[in-house]
Amino acid sequence: MLGSMADIKIKINTDREVMVKQGDSLYATLADAGVFVPSACGGRGGCGLCRLTIPNGVESQPFTKPEKHWLTDEDRTSGVRLSCQVKVLNDLHVNIPEQLLKVKACQTQVVSLRNLTYDIKEVRLKLLKPDNMEFKPGQYIQVRIPPYELSRLPIFRTYSLANDPAESGEIELEVRYVPNGISTTYIHQYLKEGDFLSINGPHGNAFPSDGPGNIILIAGGSGMSPVKSILLDMVARREKRTVRYYFGAKALRDLFFVDLMREIEKKLADFRFVPALSEPMPEDNWSGERGLITDVVARHLPDAKDTMAYLCGSPLMIDACLKVLKSKGMTDKHIYYDKFA
Ligand SMILES: Cc1cc2nc3c(=O)[nH]c(=O)nc-3n(C[C@H](O)[C@H](O)[C@H](O)COP(=O)(O)OP(=O)(O)OC[C@H]3O[C@@H](n4cnc5c(N)ncnc54)[C@H](O)[C@@H]3O)c2cc1C
Ligand code: FES
Predict the structure, then answer these.
(1) Which residues have any ligand 1 atom within 6 Å of their CB?
(2) Which atom of ligand 2 is closest in space to residue 48's alpha carbon?
(3) How far is ligand 1, taken at its centre, from the CA of residue 241, in Å?
(4) pTM higher than the cut 0.85
(5) ω before 302 within 30° of 0 (cis)?
(6) Closest residue to atom 47 of ligand 1, CA basis
(7) Under a CB-based contact definition with an 8 Å cutoff, are residues 204 and 338 in contact?
(8) What domains appear along the chain, each with residue ranges and CATH number?
């Protein structure tokens, strides 16, 4: 007989058990139980981030197409599965890194919404319950978008934290509108000041505050978000190293936070903001850097051996920049990036 009540036992690591309902994916079931597994695709098999080791309980479920794509042979033989691809059908045992068990759900309220460009919105959220979230620059949260016209079920999407980590009680996101995107349509067209929004976090690794001599930051569009947090943290820490920030946009209307970047130039010991436009319009009267951000970085960077980098933006942009940085001598261990896929 199929059960529908909370009659399935999930054992987490060696010392924790939760009773859950049968039938949903492990990823969704854990979220309902307050355990938030990282995801960039909202549980659709598209990101590979929700991997967990499941010592037993899912052996009878064949590997799905996304699992064949994201998991190596070694992963598969050692019990790693994508938690969004396996269903909770019987008791099971899952190993979850301790860091993930610290991720908290939080109720927030929208305190302000502001258009930064025609397609990027700044969203400031006041943390209500709990009223604080400690995070580090480069980390991100998951936002729960409630059911509405475009989605019958709640969905989760990932957004980088944009504010100074020292700021307590509020968080800031910069969200770029994706046509017909479930989350961004909701945030741009439905969300209002005063609305409540559930989030969980923080997720992901921080951009380290120490490392080799120079720092390069590269972003495009809403990739500005984590870089802003990294820079505000550098100001607070009085970063002394050379920092260069290359920001790629199509035209002048896609540039934002330029005044803030100029202020940061005055506050940091050796910081330069280099915005570049790939398709400036005649009326932009643009006299700054032109071209794809990869070409601009290649022109400006003679040698990247003693350098660490953080990149954020579209997968295409990041892959192209990685090639440039490596051709200039940068090693993998000094390159950090977030692909906004
Ligand atoms: C670590 C991480 C951090 C992120 N931080 C941010 C952030 O700070 N700000 C931000 O705006 N976004 C960020 N993103 C992207 C964000 O998580 C969503 O993917 C994005 O907002 C689209 O969600 P959606 O529900 O509106 O679109 P969906 O409903 O998921 O997608 C609708 C359609 O658009 C396509 N699509 C999805 N995303 C894009 C895109 N970016 N460009 C073009 N087409 C797309 C999909 O393939 C699909 O066909 C981040 C992603 C990751 C992985
Ligand atoms: S949540 Fe993206 S692959 Fe599972």
Answers:
(1) 40, 140, 157-160, 173-176, 178, 180-184, 222, 225, 338, 340-341
(2) 3
(3) 33
(4) yes
(5) no
(6) 341
(7) yes
(8) 8-100 (3.10.20.30), 103-203 (2.40.30.10), 214-339 (3.40.50.80)
pLDDT value of residue 339: 86
Q: Characterise 197 by phi-psi region: left (phi > 0), alpha (psi -120 to 50), beta (else).
A: beta
Q: How many CB atoms lie within 10 A of CB 218?
A: 28
Give the pLDDT of residue 137.
96
CA distance 218 to 233: 17
- At residue 286, what is the residue type? W
Q: Would you tell me how many other CB atoms lie within 10 Å of the CB of residue 326?
A: 13
**For residue 44, which atom of ligand 1 is closest to its CA?**
30
Pocket test of ligand 2: the residue of 82, 87, 200 to mutate, having most ligand atoms within 8 Å of its CB, is: 82
Q: Which residues pair with 148 in a beta bridge?
A: 151
Q: At 2, is the pLDDT very low, low, confident or very high (cuts 50, 70, 90)?
A: very low
Confidence grade of residue 205 (pLDDT, cut at 50, 70, 90): confident
Residue 39 is encoded by which pair of tokens? 């995801």
Cα distances from 203 to residues 2, 95, 254, in angstroms, run 35, 17, 28
Nearest ligand for residue 187 CA: 1
Mutate-to-test residue for ligand 2 from 24, 30, 36, 47, highest number of ligand atoms within 8 A of CB? 47
Q: Quick one: how far is CA 326 from the chain centroid?
A: 23
Q: Which ligand is nearest to the CA of 39?
A: 2
Peptide bond into 202 cis (omega under 30): yes
Nearest in space to 201 (alpha carbons), one of 110, 96, 95, 127: 127
Q: How far apart are CA 155 and CA 65, in angstroms?
A: 22
Q: Whose CA is nearest to atom 38 of ligand 1?
A: 341
